[in-house]
Design brief:
- The protein has 261 residues and is an alpha+beta fold.
- The protein has one domain: GHMP Kinase, N-terminal domain (Ribosomal Protein S5, domain 2).
- The protein has a 5-stranded mixed β-sheet. Strands 9-8-10-11 form a 4-stranded antiparallel β-sheet. Strands 6-7 form a two-stranded antiparallel ribbon.
- Helix 2 packs across helix 3 and helix 3 runs parallel beside helix 5.
- The protein is elongated, with a radius of gyration of 19 Å.
- 40% of the residues are buried.
- The mean pLDDT is 92.
């Protein structure tokens, strides 16, 4: 999808009148749909549609060595790829700063909430399971962060462990679900012409002065990341946190519905 060429003045005037694309309020999400199990050769997968933004997430689980400071404990390795077909602004080649930021923000929210029970991934003192989380942006129309986070959690919750026997990974035989400890979600806000907007679309992101992603579970803030320049006042930050907790239940329900829970 090609983002419409519009002016900042046009967006600003619409926001002053309380008008956003898709006819939604400042703190409303676009339509969300999640389909899991879309990649049969992955241990887990999810295809997320957030408005016109589409993200595909795959999970691969493989053996490796533990980190020196966490013996016997596996880890999560997250990567994001902004495919050139998703936007005319994405280019082929090595990971861009934008793709690195996306992967780090999503990884931090999931890791801080302990969504994956990494202590259960130990095989022996020198061998552990590592969980590789790959995020592919198939179509861009804003807010990759929340789309990727939803897909990542849904894919992890449906992932199945391959069998390990005599030093070999046997992917044709599964040993049950990856052990998880709950659900985290993220809410991303953009400050556009002085207005705070949840789930900014592509046109809104074009003129965003600042961006904030708040990752929570049911009871706690698990991670926060500010992007771009600009700033958020204390009141704006407090409002973003309140909205993130308010949206958690609905986002969790969408994830649970996608995994049949």
């Amino acid at each position: 999808m090609s983002i419409k060429m519009i002016t900042e003045e046009y967006v600003s005037e619409r926001l002053k009148k309380g008008i956003r694309d898709e006819k939604r309020g400042h703190f409303d999400y676009r339509k969300i749909s999640i389909k899991t199990g879309t990649m049969p050769n992955a241990e887990g997968s999810a295809d997320v549609q957030l408005g016109n933004t589409r993200v595909l997430v795959g999970v691969k689980i493989d053996i490796g060595e533990p980190m020196p400071d966490n013996p016997g404990e596996g880890t999560i390795i997250t990567s994001a790829e902004l495919l050139p077909m998703a936007s005319e602004n994405f280019e082929p080649g090595p990971p861009s700063p934008e793709s690195v930021e996306v992967s780090r923000v999503i990884d931090r929210g999931i890791r801080a909430a302990g969504v994956v029970d990494t202590k259960s991934l130990g095989i022996d003192e020198e061998t552990v399971w590592n969980v590789y989380l790959d995020i592919y942006v198939l179509n861009y129309d804003g807010n990759i962060f929340d789309a990727g986070s939803l897909g990542a959690v849904a894919a992890l919750l449906t992932s199945k462990m391959p069998k390990y026997d005599n030093g070999k990974v046997i992917r044709d035989e599964k040993m049950g679900r990856l052990k998880t400890n709950g659900i985290s979600t993220s809410c991303t806000f953009a400050k556009v012409s002085g207005a705070i907007l949840l789930d900014p679309n592509g046109n809104e992101e074009l003129f965003a002065a600042s961006r904030l992603t708040v990752s929570t579970d049911e009871n706690r803030i698990r991670a926060m990341q500010k992007g771009l320049g600009g700033y958020f006042t204390q009141n704006e930050l407090d409002k973003a946190i309140d909205v993130s907790f308010e949206k958690f239940g609905a986002l969790r329900s969408v994830i649970k519905e996608s995994i049949g829970d």
